[in-house]
Design brief:
- The chain is an alpha+beta fold and about 500 residues long.
- The chain has 4 domains: about 150 residues, no CATH class; about 80 residues, no CATH class; about 160 residues, Pleckstrin-homology domain (PH domain)/Phosphotyrosine-binding domain (PTB) (PH-domain like, Roll); about 50 residues.
- A 7-stranded antiparallel beta sheet has the order 7-6-5-12-11-10-9.
- A hairpin with a 5-residue loop joins strand 3 and strand 4.
- Helix 6 crosses helix 9 and helix 7 crosses helix 9.
- The longest helix has 28 residues.
- It is globular and about 70 Å long.
- The two termini are about 30 Å apart.
Length: about 500
């Protein structure tokens, strides 16, 4: 079956529902707390008027969704090799994307889209905001055909006539990596502790704040929540509290892992990698291996015992400055694989497995600043409190524990800070608990910056940062003479090489 994308076409009619629901849920999220407090304190007449107002807002949202559906069109220009989108109700926008600039195409299916039977298609380029290129309701067959062409935009006779053959479905490919439920459980129990801790803290604060707001709405806030928290610490021993927090942390980690990576599969599809995963919202990603800028794999102590690796494929991000969260969302993560699967994936990305090379270590002065600002300064501050405020003396054991733990972490960070250089690869090692290896090829370096503190000139100590389109990697407190030699070597490789960076 051939599909003609050369003429402007609209999304699926289900896009009316999807766009309307999207606008409605955004309004509800913004107004949820004020609306809930108003409902609690309002009389019947006000509640009835609020209900009518809410219905009117929903109707307007779906009317907006209808007009957005009418005004949103997309098509492929086979002669110029461009993907064109026209959208906007009051302010029209004409978006043209050269196919050669497209580095990743995602086909996602949220909960509502799964019920209706449509998909959303997102395009990620190195110079645009991917949120602008989002087709929220598209037939699965059309989505697969369009994605295949957007990542493989070579001219063919069929394209010249405006027709594009539907590619084979991904289900015909044998997965290179397929993560089972037992492996997901191991991943959930051994990784992402920091993210889960942040999530629990945010959730706990939200619960505390909302309970306070509800009590205020009933004019019944007499500090009950604070009193409950204070009394709770007298009822439970520290050991039981820590055990409960640990169980909750692990449970949260496992649930998050299953929701995000359920039925994770990675397979080689034509000249690209096809990745799909998700429980409630299914996400499908197709990307070119040669567009990966930085390949990273990491492993902590527990994962090392069970032979598990985590990998991240970092691609070029938008030209504007992005937050760490946005850059992370642009990366493709493989949450768990064994050593054989890791090596096979490295072969697909780099066409080889990185071998050894010359390893460079930092000077011991790498420890100076962390020791001063994370150990000595906090100890001095506590010493002041210890001398002037007797109440602070009971926390002495916690301060000693802090000193020991932080010193060990600083020392481990120093011992793991390494850079290995070979003719074909640069490998940066770092980490404290999760030890990561970031691999870049010299041809993908965009720029190099070096620096040296004035007081380090006689010691011949300096720093270097390698900038790529997917982020930067740095090596600090190395021998500056060796660093300058490496920089000259890398610049020679970049300037004399004839390979493209993506």
């Amino acid at each position: 079956m051939s599909l003609d994308f050369s003429q402007p076409q609209r999304q699926s009619a289900a896009g009316i529902i999807i766009n309307g629901a999207y606008i409605a849920q955004r309004l509800v999220r913004v107004m949820f707390i004020p609306l809930a407090l108003f409902i609690v304190k309002a009389n019947k007449t006000a509640l009835l008027n609020t209900a009518f107002g809410f219905i009117a807002v929903v109707i307007l949202a779906f009317v907006y969704g209808y007009f957005n559906y009418l005004k949103f069109t997309f098509y492929l220009n086979p002669l110029k090799q461009e993907f064109v989108i026209d959208k906007g109700i009051f302010s029209r926008k004409h978006l043209t994307i050269p196919i050669e600039k497209i580095q990743q195409v995602n086909i996602n299916q949220g909960f509502l889209q799964k019920i209706i039977g449509v998909y959303s298609l997102q395009i990620d380029t190195a110079g645009a905001d991917s949120k602008e290129v989002d087709i929220r309701a598209i037939n699965g067959e059309i989505a697969q055909a369009l994605r295949q062409h957007l990542l493989h935009g070579q001219r063919t006779p069929a394209m010249e006539e405006g027709a594009i053959e539907t590619p084979p479905t991904a289900s015909t490919d044998v997965p290179l990596i397929k993560i089972k439920a037992a492996t997901l459980l191991k991943i959930g129990l051994t990784s992402n502790y920091g993210q889960s801790v942040a999530l629990l803290i945010g959730f706990g604060y939200a619960v505390f704040y909302n309970i306070k707001e509800v009590l205020k709405a009933f004019d019944n806030d007499y500090g009950q929540v604070e009193q409950f928290v204070k009394s709770g610490f007298t009822l439970f021993s520290t050991g039981i509290l820590l055990a409960a927090i640990t169980v909750l942390l692990l449970a949260t980690n496992v649930i998050r892992t299953f929701v995000k990576y359920f039925d994770f599969q990675l397979s080689k599809h034509s000249h690209s990698l096809l990745i799909s995963a998700g429980l409630l919202a299914r996400k499908n990603t197709l990307l070119h291996p040669n567009k990966v800028q930085i390949t990273e794999y990491s492993q902590n102590y527990l994962q090392k015992k069970i032979g598990l690796f985590k990998m991240s494929l970092k691609q070029a991000h938008a030209g504007r400055k992005q937050s760490e969260k946005e850059m992370k969302n642009n990366n493709t993560e493989i949450p768990g694989c064994n050593a054989t699967e890791k090596d096979e994936l490295l072969r697909m990305i780099l066409n080889r497995i990185p071998d050894g090379g010359s390893t460079f270590k930092p000077n011991w002065r790498y420890l100076n600043l962390p020791v001063v600002f994370q150990l000595i300064l906090p100890m001095l501050i506590y010493g002041v409190f210890y001398y002037f405020f007797p109440e602070a003396r009971v926390y002495y054991p916690l301060v000693v524990a802090y000193f020991v733990i932080v010193f060990i972490m600083i020392y481990i960070s120093y011992t793991k800070h390494r850079i290995t250089v070979s003719e074909t690869d640069i490998i940066k090692q770092s980490g404290i608990w999760d030890i990561s290896q970031e691999i870049i090829e010299p041809r993908k370096i965009q720029s190099i910056s070096t620096s040296q503190y004035p007081w380090h000139k006689k010691l011949d100590i300096g720093h270097v940062t390698l900038h790529t389109a997917a982020g930067s990697i740095s090596f600090s407190y190395g021998n500056f003479t060796e660093i300058k030699t490496l920089v000259n070597y890398w610049l020679y490789q970049v300037e004399s090489g004839d390979q493209e960076w993506m």
